[in-house]
């Protein structure tokens, strides 16, 4: 990592919320541990609740005990990190409260400021306008906007327009934490740091691409939020589409924010719309029922006490996307994501075409397996390439079997700690590098595509298909690639 030790005030709106406690503060703590925060950098929690600095520090300590167990008893980083922590009571809807940020000397002595809006997007506009009223929108001040930015194209535009009244595009960092994952960045390294893959990265050599983000967790505890979103808005519109863009984009001229984003937007614009009747042949929606995960019985979507039995919100989506350009014509991109599936894992599979003619005529070699490049994001970070090999032994003749060439990132880099996505992204905002953040035109193009599908869904009385928790989603999802003579890659 390039290190920037420029002093900065990181102000977290929603500073006592779940995201702050689970992800943001642990990430900042790790950055401090790795020596990546300037000595005078401050971390300031802001929310409606009345709380003293000491109470906030205690709360953060509790969160670290839970989410960074290795930090328990830490005598080195914690005392320093604790000194950085303070708290300001700000009701995001009370403009006058924002004067307390000035009283707290936010941005004083020309420090850069990162305002992290870990709040509901409905508040983004009013927070940004109150910051501006109090002079807290100078060019060295940036806002980080958590997803989801709206629930469709219209609402996302409305929110974005509000933010843009007081901050410029250069100051707005729209975060998608999937882009901060190490293996996702490694995908760029693999594609553009080697001569090996790029010449074979097109419809002449690749048969299909599969992107799976499978979770075992349900929506427990956040039914109310989730039911308004669903898997399409919560995962596909951002995480899965961003992964698709990185796989499909042309090589950017440089690794900088606009060059990368200019290439991603071309992919988004080339996505073939899925509308009307196409939505039934190209997408599958599901809702989880009860079932077994890791030997434990778990409840269904409608067993949650807040649930509404009429809900048609999908907890699973599988779809076939097509990219209408020269490089990808005829190559399906199969995407799927869901809650309460059999295994927690995320991966991108590049499935190459079969050899044009097999010279190996034995019975056992008729079905030569195709090469596959698998980029696994989680649970483990690894990249593997399946190639056909001869089984050793004279008596074996020319018997071929697939063998995986595995690159385990943890082993290759001597078990070096792999940073969490938010560490990398927070550091990038502090050093003002927006390469791994979304420009608004990308968000807009992704919403346009997703809106088409959702509007087709809303015109039918069909409900999402039920699937048992612990399965791989509705049977129709299995059938999606089979209709095209293909299969999902098994975990
Ligand atoms: C979030 C979604 O953006 O990503 C959650 O809102 C989801 O519903 C989460 O669980 C998954 O992230 P990760 O990094 O655990 O795969």
UniProtKB/TrEMBL annotation:
Residues binding substrate, per UniProt: 177, 181, 215, 234, 339
Domain of life: Bacteria
Occurrences of domain Glucose-6-phosphate dehydrogenase C-terminal (ranges): 188-489
InterPro entries found in the cross-reference section: G6P_DH, G6P_DH_AS, G6P_DH_C, G6P_DH_NAD-bd, NAD(P)-bd_dom_sf
Active-site residues, Swiss-Prot/TrEMBL: 239
UniProt pathway annotation: Carbohydrate degradation; pentose phosphate pathway; D-ribulose 5-phosphate from D-glucose 6-phosphate (oxidative stage): step 1/3
One of the record's GO cellular component terms: cytosol
Keyword tags: Carbohydrate metabolism, Glucose metabolism, NADP, Oxidoreductase
One Pfam family named in its UniProt record: G6PD_N
GO biological process: glucose metabolic process; pentose-phosphate shunt, oxidative branch
Descriptive protein name: Glucose-6-phosphate 1-dehydrogenase
Organism: Marinomonas hwangdonensis
Lineage: Bacteria, Pseudomonadati, Pseudomonadota, Gammaproteobacteria, Oceanospirillales
Gene, per the UniProt record: zwf
């Amino acid at each position: 990592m390039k290190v920037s030790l420029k002093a900065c005030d990181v102000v977290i709106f929603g500073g006592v919320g779940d995201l702050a406690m689970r992800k943001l503060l642990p990430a900042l703590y790790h950055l401090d541990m790795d020596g990546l925060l300037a000595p005078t950098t401050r971390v300031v929690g802001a929310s409606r609740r009345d709380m003293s600095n000491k109470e906030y520090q205690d709360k953060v300590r509790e969160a670290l005990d839970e989410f960074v167990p290795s930090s328990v008893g830490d005598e080195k980083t914690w005392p320093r990190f604790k000194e950085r922590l303070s708290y300001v009571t700000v009701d995001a809807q009370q403009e006058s409260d924002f004067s307390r940020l000035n009283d707290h000397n936010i941005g004083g002595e020309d420090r850069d400021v990162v305002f992290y809006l870990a709040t509901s997007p409905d508040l983004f506009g009013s927070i940004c306008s109150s910051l501006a009223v109090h002079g807290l929108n100078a060019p060295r001040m940036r806002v980080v906007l958590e997803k989801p930015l709206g629930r469709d194209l219209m609402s996302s535009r409305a929110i974005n327009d509000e933010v843009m009244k007081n901050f410029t595009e250069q100051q707005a960092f729209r975060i998608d934490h999937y882009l901060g994952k190490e293996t996702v960045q490694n995908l760029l390294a693999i594609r553009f740091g080697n001569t090996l893959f790029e010449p074979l990265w097109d419809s002449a050599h690749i048969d299909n691409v599969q992107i799976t983000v499978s979770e075992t967790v349900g929506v427990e505890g956040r039914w109310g939020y989730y039911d308004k979103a669903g898997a399409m808005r919560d995962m596909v519109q951002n995480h899965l589409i961003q992964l698709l863009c990185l796989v499909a984009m042309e090589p950017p001229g440089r690794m900088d924010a606009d060059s990368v984003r200019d290439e991603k937007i071309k992919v988004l614009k080339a996505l073939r719309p899925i509308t009307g009747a196409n939505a039934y042949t190209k997408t599958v929606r599901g809702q989880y029922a009860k079932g077994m995960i890791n030997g434990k019985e778990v409840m269904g979507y409608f067993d949650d006490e807040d649930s509404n039995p009429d809900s048609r919100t999908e907890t699973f989506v599988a779809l076939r996307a097509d990219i209408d350009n020269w490089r990808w014509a005829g190559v399906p991109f199969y995407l799927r994501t869901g809650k309460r599936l059999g295994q927690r894992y995320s991966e991108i599979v590049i499935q190459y075409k079969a050899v044009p003619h097999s010279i190996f005529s034995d019975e056992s070699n008729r079905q030569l397996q195709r090469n596959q490049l698998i980029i696994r994001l989680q649970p483990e970070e690894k990249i593997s390439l399946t190639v056909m090999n001869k089984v050793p032994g004279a008596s074996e003749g020319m018997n071929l079997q697939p063998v995986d060439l595995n690159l385990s990132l943890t082993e290759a880099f001597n078990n070096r700690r792999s940073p969490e996505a938010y560490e990398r992204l927070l550091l990038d905002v502090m050093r003002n590098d927006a390469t791994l953040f979304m420009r608004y035109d990308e968000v807009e193009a992704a919403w346009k595509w997703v809106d088409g599908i959702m509007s087709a869904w809303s015109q039918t009385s069909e409900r999402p298909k039920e699937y048992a928790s612990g399965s791989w989603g509705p049977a129709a999802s299995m059938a999606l690639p089979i209709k095209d003579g293909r299969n999902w890659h098994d975990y």
